[in-house]
Design a protein that fits this description.
The protein is α+β, with helices and mostly antiparallel strands. It has helices spanning 27-56, 62-74, 232-238, 245-256, 318-325, and strands at 84-87, 93-106, 109-120, 129-138, 149-157, 162-172, 175-186, 189-200, 205-217, 267-275, 286-294, 297-307, 314-316. Helices cover 21% and strands 39% of the residues. It is elongated.
Length: 330
């Protein structure tokens, strides 16, 4: 009879080893991981929110841009004076306001041209004092960002009543600017001049191109003795313009001939400017027709105004310039 063989006992070496639990990361590492993950998500959400708010913000508009620029230049708007206040180097206050505004597109970018004038406080031109400023504002971008702009400032101080007219001009392709025409009434001696200002967009500056005489008229006081100048300041102010320099010539002539009676001559000199068509020029020349009348005598001179394309400065024909600078040349 066969005897059953008992099952073999496993040897110690063949017994399964006990499995160790996996090592757990340190607590601070888990916290750092979740902190970085949360910060990344928060940053992305904030970035999306900023982009949404930016695109929902309105583009720069003319009205708000003008207010921003004027406040940056002159300070807060004065409801009482109905304008912005500027104080000159002699502590005189001027009330400034925008007289002209025009949008232009240069190299695909929108620009805003502002012509700003201001009379001395309490004066409407009777004292001949005027502050003016020309600004070119970049209209690109959003309204909440401060606008970028450039320009220039100047002034008039004539000592006699003035009448001012400011208009925009475009003398050439992508050439823009202003002309400031003003009439000075020196007690019947009328002079009208026109100052030209052009924008050099490449250099981001406004160029004072030059001054053109428009009219010189003494017909309302001719035959009378010249009016004495009240003070030195008025004399200097009156002689500052090219057209009104005639009064200083008259005063000098009368001083040299004190023993001889002197009467104001009947001068009536005018100049008319018309643009010409010159396709080869950056700025087409202007044709000028000057007329001089003295009593029954009349003389007509034809000349030109030529602009330097590099500097944007103008040059008037010498014979026309001489006609207005030397009223006693007849």
């Amino acid at each position: 009879m066969t005897r059953a063989t008992p099952p073999l006992e496993p040897t110690p070496s063949s017994a399964p080893a006990t499995a160790l639990p996996p090592a757990q990361p340190a607590c601070w590492k888990r916290l750092l991981k979740w902190f970085l993950l949360g910060a990344g998500i928060l940053f992305v959400l904030l970035l999306i929110l900023v982009l949404v708010m930016y695109w929902r913000t309105p583009d720069r508009n003319t009205r708000d841009t003008i207010s921003q620029v004027m406040t940056a230049e002159f300070g807060p708007y004065s409801e009482e004076l109905e304008g912005w206040t500027q104080v000159d180097d002699q502590a005189r206050s001027y009330v400034m306001n925008v007289q002209t505004q025009q949008q232009v597109t240069i190299n695909g970018k929108r620009k805003l041209m502002l012509g700003i004038l201001g009379y001395a406080r309490g004066d409407t031109g009777q004292e001949g004092r005027l502050q003016y400023r020309f600004l070119v504002v970049d209209l690109e971008g959003k309204q909440q960002v401060a606008p970028q702009y450039f320009g220039m400032t100047s002034h008039l101080d004539r000592g006699f009543p003035i009448e001012v007219e400011l208009t925009e001009i475009e003398p050439g392709k992508d050439i823009h600017g202003w002309q400031l025409q003003y009439q000075v009434d020196a007690e019947g001696e009328i002079s009208v001049d026109r100052e030209i200002y052009l924008i050099d967009f490449a250099k981001s500056e406004v160029v004072a191109s030059g001054t053109l005489p428009v009219r010189y008229d003494t017909t309302s006081i001719c035959g009378q003795p010249p009016t004495p100048v009240a003070d030195d300041a008025s004399s200097e102010a009156a002689s500052a313009t090219s057209a009104s320099s005639a009064s200083s010539v008259v005063s000098d002539a009368s001083a040299e001939n004190e023993s001889e009676p002197y009467e104001v001559p009947c001068w009536n000199r005018t100049a008319r400017y018309e643009p010409t068509a010159d396709r080869g020029a950056v700025i087409s020349p202007w044709r000028v027709t000057a007329t001089s009348r003295n009593g029954e005598h009349e003389e007509v001179i034809v000349g030109a105004v030529v602009f330097d394309p590099r500097t944007l400065k103008l040059k008037l024909s010498p014979k026309v310039q001489f006609l207005f600078e030397e009223p006693l040349n007849e």
